[in-house]
Amino acid sequence: MVHKVLKARYFPNCNFLAASKGRTSSYVWRSLIWGCELLLSGLRKRIGDGQETLVYGDAWIPRPNYFRPISPKVLNQETKVSALIFPIGNWNVDLLNLCFHAEGVKAITSIPLSVNYHNDRWIWHYTTNGVYYVKSGYRLAISRKKECSGAVGSKD
Prior knowledge:
Reverse transcriptase zinc-binding domain-containing protein, globular, mainly alpha
């Protein structure tokens, strides 16, 4: 029932993960959006065969805080990660070097590729097993709060 009311009021034309805060939102809704934003900041794709992950549109590169490419866009916007993988299951390092900065290539080649070609899936970056736990979400929220208060409080 609560979901139906919130959906009708705040996100009638999209799913919860794509919902926005809005201008006149309640404290409860703003809190839910904050939690959603925190969740999205820790989710990234675990690459299997790369068929379901966009190179530029999805979070998939395993590095702290930002999981998307930070290199100039060389490939088509709709290119899938599978285009960066040889059919034998190895990264195409020559193509990676053409498309990404050295730091990005290092992070991408650290992703193990499976010979079983399983589907890409969403994982939580901040646990070793990829499963979200409230404790890890809380730790991320605290670290982000410290970053913000440290940046605001510094007077260099």
